[in-house]
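Readers outside the structure-tokenisation community will struggle with the description of the input data as it stands. Showing the layout once, in full, would remove most of the difficulty. For illustration, here is how one protein appears when written out as sequence plus structure tokens:
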Amino acid sequence: MPVFHLLMTEKCQNAEGIALANGPVRGKVGSSDRLHSRLRRSTELIDGFIQRPPAFEPNGRATYCNVAFVLLGFALETLTGLTYDEIVKKTVFDPVGMQRAMLKKPPDSEGVIPNMTNDWDADIGTYGPYDFQAFFSSISNNCSTGGIYTTASDLALFARSILAKQSLATVDTNAWFKPHSYSSSWEFAYGMPWEIFRTSDLIPDSDRIQTIITKAGSLTGYTSQLLLIPEHDVGIVLLVAGESRALAWLREEMLRNVIPAIETIAREQTNDRLSGTYTASYSPIDSSVSVEVQGSWGLVLTSWISNGTDFLTRYVDMRKRKEDGPGKVQLTPSGIKRGSKGEVWRAQFVPDKVASSGIINTHVITDVDQLNYASRSLDEFVFELDASGNAVEVELPALRVKLRRRPDPEGQHSFSARLRNLMKPLGLGH
């Protein structure tokens, strides 16, 4: 039931250190009386809201609201005949391997309880008696908005399952990460149920925008946030028991230090895996391409010869707009695999950025797959990888040619080789 996965990250109450690996979460309560009670309470809830005026017009402005997820929790129990915590355990906790996640409070000895007013004793896992006026002030009535007791390690397993497209299919995960509504800030949008942030401040030598998919939650004494950066397949779990302002400090420190380091590693790995010169292995074909990582530009096509012709220049002439200045041909990963070892990348001419006073003046890469030859795209590059993930050849489907990667006997494209070259002036390059 894919829609269920939207619930788990709506709001998390967490306590690091729980070790209730195989204990019972809750006794089975799946009787028709209970389900009829659920249905009755959900109907009463809807009736109560009908009496209230809307906050905004439908599909107009967005605001934070848990009501839809409370109703969804009722619906799931009614449809499945299971209690909400049984559904969570069956569809999320067990498949992902979250053995220390639960909706019922574990023993105090297994949790982190801050020395301040806190909601550790809140009964998150059960619904209390229905009272519309008090409904949303009762934590127990909001368990389907995502409140759980868990650990950082279990949430990390959950994050990995999402990023690895194990919880949902790739197409559903990609759609899940898209915003559903904008906010009053250019850098923030509402997802379902994500809080989505976009920033260009994390990579020192680039203004490339990073999208951070987040879900934050808090109860008295506890604050948590799950951050996913799909571009780098990285997740960050932040759990705080105590002063809530600690989470903002942790988040800032993690993002400003981790993301630049990951970006550097990604460039080095891409350079090691793909950079080099690829040539035709049979004569008399005079065809080759050369690619390399060039700082914030990423993977760049530096040479393209087709049957003795400078095809790179021809390609740029065909893709360049009249108003464009000089630039580079970037190769961008498509996320698509070809066969078991083929990695598809797309070429695109990107002009150098120039200062402009125009309101709309940003060059956005949208026009891929525009030039075709014999029904195949000229910008398609398929890198064939070996068992270690390193390219051994590149296929240019439009030109019906496969080019072998030229051996690099001195390892000049490897990170270790470049590090040695940097250290030579210091007398350390041995």
User: Anything to note?
Assistant: The two ends are 57 Å apart (CA to CA). Residues 1-36, 125-140 have pLDDT under 50 and may be disordered.
